[in-house]
Amino acid sequence: MILTIRLPFPAAELSPNYHGKLRDRIVAVRAARNDGYMAAVVALSALAYPDPWYAIRCGPVTAQAHYTYRTKRYVQDDDNAAGRLKAYRDGICQALGLDDADFTWAGPPTWEIGPYISVEVVIREVEREEGRNPGGEDVLVSQPERGEAVHPRQTHRRSVGYPAH
């Protein structure tokens, strides 16, 4: 699944270097989270038509952000550009039904000079082998039986379990 979401340019209050009023930042974060959610819902609706947008469920995703600026004067460093997208990321994860841990950036945001300012986020679903992490080692570990010691220091403890009735 490849999903392209076009978002408005992030407000200055979303920058990690913002030192203004806290209330202004809270309002900007709430608005950006809502914008990210609604933009993701619109993109999912176009992808899922004629089914409802919430019928689409996906696993872990990677995303690439691309900024469009009017002039080179407003170009930000990659840390601030990525930091401004945190609230958008939260809204997009909420629309996709994902946890933030399953949403990773593929790299630093890219940019170009264009006629209008915006941010475009391209989301790709990551294909993972079941039960394995990216390093290839087994993630699923056998669980101890009920009453079995998990650690050698736990051998002196009584067995864990429900009393028989």
Whole-number total of structural domains: 1
Q: Give the termini distance in whole angstroms.
A: 52 Å
Q: pLDDT average, as an integer?
A: 80
Predict the CATH topology: 60s Ribosomal Protein L30, Chain: A
The appropriate CATH architecture is 2-Layer Sandwich
Identify the overall geometry.
globular
Largest sheet: 5 strands, mixed
Class by alpha and beta content: alpha/beta
Radius of gyration: 22 Å
Proportion of residues in β-strands? 15-25%
Count of helical stretches: 3
The sequence of SSEs as H and E is EHEHHEEE
Q: Output the CATH class name.
A: Alpha Beta
The percent of residues in helical segments reads 25-40%
**Unreliable parts:** 135-141
Query: Count of DSSP E strands?
Result: 5
